[in-house]
Design brief:
The protein is α/β, with parallel strands linked by helices and 332 residues long. It folds into three domains: 43 residues, no CATH class; 123 residues, Response regulator (Rossmann fold); 131 residues, Response regulator (Rossmann fold, 3-Layer(aba) Sandwich). Helix content is 44%, strand content 18%. It contains twelve helices and twelve strands. Helix 11 links the parallel strand 8 and strand 9. The longest helix has 17 residues. The protein starts with 6 loop residues before the first helix and ends in a 9-residue tail after the last strand.
């Protein structure tokens, strides 16, 4: 097996300058006779250029950094697939950085991407902390925030309040009067504040008698533990549980089933996400699905305009689709 050559090796073997080889790979002017000399060496030694290193030396890297809170989320996966398809069609490559819901790692990832000289950054933010805002302000490449509203910059959000209101109204219209809302910390403005507020406002306007809030996070395990503790003495008067995500809903369903109770006859459960697996649950989960594919498409269109320094809308939103399953009982 022949040893992998460097550009300096190619220059020496071809009898040309290293700068000439560099121009050859970067599309600069090189005489046809010289090009042929370089091509012969490349073919003989099966040289494969480091395209990533090349991009870092170019004015445009054609790489867009994408920072996401996790890689095990169905919604995140949908958004990434849509982004990848749209960006590839535009000639760009994604460089994905996972934060694992760690705020410090989120900031490190943004700073690392800037050092790598990506053309732009798309950030699916965990929450808009003051520290994160300062880092965003210091970034000298276009940066687009997804799924959290960023007043000082450009962001694309899901219409969480309206989605929450729609679900709260649906549960109330089905005659439920004692509702538990499983939410997340209010540091997450999108889900912990706006989605929760939509649910609570709808329940209040519909004169639901009792509304309790149980705070968890986005993980199945944490929600299972929280629900297990909450229902340790049984479900009491609770006749419906509205979860902030389908993953939370699955965890609560497990707890209810372990109590030997029936869904939805004994207690109704619903969520947000519209995962394909939610349709396989027994009973099928009533949920709300955000258009992640559309979010990815709008994000691509927006970030490309930002790279070209074209005017973009400061705030755009994506609507959701209500999916009626079999997990909410009609008590009327």
């Amino acid at each position: 097996m022949k040893k992998q050559l460097t550009m300096a090796d190619i220059a020496k073997i071809a009898g040309v300058g290293k700068s000439t080889v560099s121009r050859y790979f970067n599309g600069g002017y090189v005489k046809e006779e010289t090009k042929e000399k370089i091509r012969v060496v490349i073919e003989e030694y099966n040289y494969k250029p480091n395209t990533f290193a090349q991009s870092l030396k170019a004015k445009e890297t054609k790489i867009i950094g994408v920072v996401v809170p996790c890689l095990d989320s169905t919604v995140t996966s949908r958004v990434l697939m849509s982004l990848d398809e749209e960006l590839r069609a535009a000639g760009y490559t994604m460089l994905i950085m996972n934060t694992a819901h760690d705020h410090n790692l989120e900031i490190e990832n943004i700073e690392n991407l800037q050092r790598l000289r990506v053309d732009a950054i798309i950030l699916s933010a965990i929450s808009m902390t003051d520290e994160l805002k300062k880092v965003i302000e210091s970034v000298d490449v276009p940066l687009l925030v997804l799924e959290q509203e960023y007043a000082a910059g450009v962001s694309i959000i899901n219409n969480d309040y309206d989605a929450g209101y729609k679900m709260g109204k649906y549960v109330a219209d089905k005659g439920h009067k004692n509702v538990l809302v499983v939410s997340v910390n209010e540091k997450d403005i999108a889900v912990g504040v706006k989605r929760r507020s939509g649910i609570l406002d709808a329940l209040k306007e519909s004169n639901v008698d009792i509304v309790d809030v149980l705070e968890s996070n986005f993980s199945h395990h944490k929600t299972y533990d929280c629900a297990k503790e909450y229902f340790k003495d049984g479900i009491g008067n609770i006749d419906a549980v509205i979860c902030s995500t389908d993953k939370q809903a699955v965890a609560v369903m497990k707890v209810i089933e372990e109590l030997g109770l029936s869904i939805p006859k004994d207690v109704s459960i619903c969520g947000f996400g519209g995962y394909e697996t939610s349709n396989l649950l027994k009973p099928r989960l009533t949920t709300i699905k955000f258009d992640s594919e559309k979010l990815g498409k709008i994000a691509t269109e927006t970030i490309l305009k930002m790279i070209k320094k074209e005017e973009v809308e400061k705030l755009q939103s994506v609507d959701a689709k209500f999916i009626e399953g079999e997990s909410v009982y009609d008590m009327n």
